[in-house]
Specification:
The chain is mostly helical. It is built from 25 helices and no strands. α6 (109-115) crosses α9 (160-168), α15 runs antiparallel to α16 and α19 (315-327) runs antiparallel to α20 (332-339).
Length: 421
């Protein structure tokens, strides 16, 4: 058997203790590689084991591909010396005949990529590259450029996992070497190529996306076309909808209003729900600038980009837009007037009404608050919201004559019937 390079006490044996043609069962090696992938053995294991594994036969490396690639992934951030051997081992793992080349069900693309030997080695190479502190416009180093270029070759199916990981780091790669990225990596985002591979690349990017303007400008057409592939993105569709909404809130000169409007309306209801939630989150995070953000960002977005058909509204979208009205705070009446066509009764409005009460909007804008409550509370609302009485009391205190209003009487009767206490 291939003698293990460590004695019973865990210490490493000299390299000459190993015999080139001796093999052990895989289990001890897998266990050892797992241990060596953790501190404090990573650096020391690299010093002793890099030459040993580089000399191992292909069949042996293939049997331990996952363990070796995970070890490379772990040592990439800290190893010292043997850099040629690091590249050699990465090359050899990539060249092995991996059986699981493009497998994976829906929603598993990124998970499978980051756990596959090709993906682990790709991430190891990226970690090593980041250690060199690359700068914008510096260009990729010559020892990594051919490897990354090969990973971008869509004719090599097993490298798909590597392409997913490169896509996850596309912003850094584009910033450092825009020429290389434009030639090799960005074409992978084009939906005119094989749809499955393109979708996997987009999922890699959307794993942890950022709205980096120069890159989005370079991917302008594929980025807009991705709206029509929302469903194929699985769980990453939400991140796409968020990016598209952020682009619409601050479009600069990258997109036209018509382009953003068409892309937004090309998304299914689920995508519009994600977009509505993004509007709420960005408005709430504006802090002291909320009034300006509503006026200069959200309101123009709603008027020029958001769909103008009620066919694009679901109960979930309507509830998110109700939250958007509340998030507008001082602009609550204007927000209600703008969004009223898309609002409808909410089956469980307790949280919405609680937020309305917490923001004291009923006391500030009693007329608008009453209209709002009459829209979101309907006959199918089986139980009155907990804060409904407080809201009605604030409205009555602010406008005593409101007790004669038919809408106020309906809500008061509804509350009395369902909650006589």
């Amino acid at each position: 058997s291939f003698t293990t390079p460590f004695s019973q006490d865990g210490s490493f044996l000299p390299n000459d203790h190993l015999h080139k043609n001796s093999y052990t069962p895989e289990e001890p090696w897998m266990e050892a590689l797992q241990v060596w992938s953790t501190e404090p053995l990573t650096n020391r294991s690299w010093r002793y084991m890099a030459p040993v594994l580089c000399a191992a036969p292909d069949a042996f490396l293939l049997s331990l591909a996952h363990g070796v690639s995970w070890w490379l992934h772990s040592v990439a951030k800290i190893f010292e010396g043997h850099e040629v051997l690091f590249l050699n081992l990465c090359h050899r793992i990539l060249e092995l005949g991996h059986q699981d080349s493009v497998g994976g069900g829906e929603g598993e693309v990124v998970t499978r990529a980051i756990n596959h030997p090709v993906g682990l080695v790709t991430e190891a190479l990226l970690r090593w590259w980041y250690r060199r502190s690359p700068e914008d416009g510096q260009g990729l180093p010559e020892d990594l450029k051919p490897i990354f270029s090969a990973l971008c070759d869509t004719e090599i199916n097993k490298f798909r996992h590597g392409r997913v990981l490169l896509a996850a780091h596309v912003i850094a790669l584009f910033r450092v070497d825009s020429d290389w990225a434009t030639l090799h990596l960005l074409p992978l985002f084009n939906w005119q190529h094989a749809a499955n591979d393109t979708c996997a690349v987009w999922e890699g990017f959307l794993w942890s996306p950022q709205l980096y303007r120069p890159l989005i400008a370079a991917l302008r057409r594929p980025f807009l076309e991705t709206a029509g592939h929302y469903a194929a993105l699985g769980e990453h569709g939400r991140q796409y909808a968020t990016l598209l909404t952020l682009a619409g809130l601050d479009r600069g000169d990258t997109f036209s209003v018509a382009e953003l409007r068409d892309a937004t309306r090309a998304m299914p209801i689920e995508g519009l729900h994600d977009a509505a939630q993004t509007l709420v989150q960005t408005l709430e995070s504006a802090g002291d600038q909320r009034a300006d953000y509503w006026k200069n960002r959200v309101l123009p977005y709603l008027r020029s980009i958001w769909p103008n058909s009620r066919d694009s509204v679901s109960l979930a979208v309507s509830e998110s837009l109700a939250h958007l009205c509340i998030a507008a705070q001082q602009a609550f009446p204007e927000a209600l007037s703008t969004l009223q066509p898309w609002l409808q009764p909410i089956q469980y409005p307790d949280y919405v009404v609680r937020r309305l009460d917490e923001r004291k909007l009923c006391a500030q804008f009693p007329d608008a608050a009453l209209r709002f409550l009459n829209i979101i509370i309907g006959t199918q609302t089986l139980w009155p919201p907990t804060n409904l009485k407080d809201c009605l009391d604030d409205i009555r205190d602010a406008m005593p004559h409101i007790i004669d209003d038919s809408h106020f009487r309906w809500l008061s009767d509804y509350l009395r019937i369902h909650d006589p206490t």
